[in-house]
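Journal club side-thread
Mid-discussion, someone asked how the predicted structure for our own chain would compare to the paper's figures. Pasting it here so we can look after the session.
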Amino acid sequence: MQKFAGRLIVEEIKGRNGLFCVGTLKTSIGDFKVKDPALDQFKRGSYEGDFLVEKIYTKGVPWRGGFFTELIAKIAEGGFIIADESDAPPQDLPSTQAEPDPVDEKFQNTSQSAPIQEVVRPIAKKRSESTENDDMELFGIELYSAFIQCAQIALDPTVDREQFRRQRDRLKEAGYRFNAQDQVWTIVQD
């Protein structure tokens, strides 16, 4: 594992299965693509800090009848050590026109059957029994307890990427905001 000081540029992309984020890590030794589920919590922008890189590798990606190779940095668990974030969109955002949705990539790697369909669950604004049950199922007992107490929540990016996105979207809807420096979701006070 190697620690790099650098700048992470996060781009939010609307894929067939919902919003997802990818990043470009700019370091003194080069630029690397970052495709970590934890990025789905970040908003579009630039983040300065230290990054614990577990490994660097190349990956060939077929996309829309073509093929390209990426240089990818795998960030270690807890490896996003953010010192400063900029809400202003950076001028040097990477082009993401050929960015496949990671959910589709995972599905294509495990099965050659028909593509998965987006599951859209209606989410009620007011708590009802069914919403409480849905939230309990979505978050699990421990996170659900923090959710109903409006406590800080740290999502686990190692869960299924689709579930991770649903958790993120539910937190946003409930009035939570992601704090990149602390890597937690907190309720926004009106």
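Post-session note: The first helix runs from residue 102 to 110.
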